Amino acid sequence: MGEPQSSKTDRPATAGFEIRGGGYRAGIAATGAGLRLLEWDGPEGPMALTETWDIGTRPPLSAGLILAPWPNRIRDGQFVFDGIDHQLEITEPTFGNASHGFVRRRDWRVVNHADDRIELSIDVGLHKGWPYPLRLTVAYVVGDDGLTVTHTATNTGAIPAPFGMGFHSYVRAGDFPLDECTLRLSAGTRLPLDERMLPSGGSQPVAGTEYDFTSPRTLAGVALDTPFSALDVDADGRSRHELRAPDGTGTILWAAREFGWLQAFVADPDAGKSYPGRGRALALEPMTCPPDAFNSGIDQLVLAPGQQWTGVWGMSAVA
């Protein structure tokens, strides 16, 4: 097992770790605390539940990386909090946005590592337009019920801090091409976006529209880069979303109530975004808030000094 490297931005993951349990195997990278693979030992052999990438390579399309202290985008990199104007670095110059926070290309420190679990942490640090010290942890655990991912965020500073989090997970139904699979989302509304991938209006019901995946629908030809909300939760307080292959096997992504949003994105070669070796691929991204939440205030979290937030999601196989 490799040891995590010291923090440095914009370089590929070089330290990799593995956990196993309950018939599941997960690969974790130190850089971005990234989930670089998840597979299940099915009756026909190992079945991939996520798109994968190799240690020593940059995660394609930010696959499997943590998005914090905000997910998605902030318009013009600007927001006002507690009456103070903030100007973040523009990290998405094509659209003029600050995108996906500060930690997806930095190395995280391994706190502990056992056969079936690993925990990593990072201090977000101070950045241009960001005077809020935060400490993040993530724990990956595999067992009979699949993968469980537990995130915490702690305000280590002396003033309240805005906060949001997401996870850029790509789901997969074994080796079946995406266009042969069906998708079901437990989501009642979607947020329309403009050409800069920023909200262009309020949330709209999905019923009867092209965004209605409350019943399984084939993904052949479907284009998505859409924030969904009004997530329907089961009795255990979790929303569940399913990608299934033609033979009924597949992957369930679930999220606890802390993640009230789900961004669905289809990588498509025809749109200039191809997943290497796979072409079309599906990201289902649990998020605490929608794009530009630091300006809209929609589901924006505020952590008081010393306050800790915890959120949980996970994945399991459909046999």
UniProtKB/TrEMBL annotation:
Protein known as: Aldose 1-epimerase family protein
Alphabetized Pfam families for the sequence: Aldose_epim (PF01263)
